[in-house]
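Action item from last week, closing it out:
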Amino acid sequence: MGNRQIVAYYDENMKDTIASIQKILRLEFDTVFCSHSGVIENGHKMFRQKLDFLLDLQDRVNELRRQGLTDQEIDRKLYPRVLLITRVSRGEWSSYNMISTI
């Protein structure tokens, strides 16, 4: 459960992810059991950090859109390096999937 996300699956919607994390943070909890990272003792804090990251990313993307950049241009600006997972998956896992749905 990383607090920064660099790729998303092609059918993920980052606006839905933000809304889900906001709902989760209304609950009181500390420990999270993550299928990727195992037991996380500071779960609430980690979700807060992830939400902060996504909201910041959303603000940056929206500002670049207001400046007239396309989602493809924004993706190249914010994530200039194409990851191996993006190449291997033929774009099913990519930063563009985050940008286009945020």
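Closing note: Residues 43-66 form the longest helix (24 residues).
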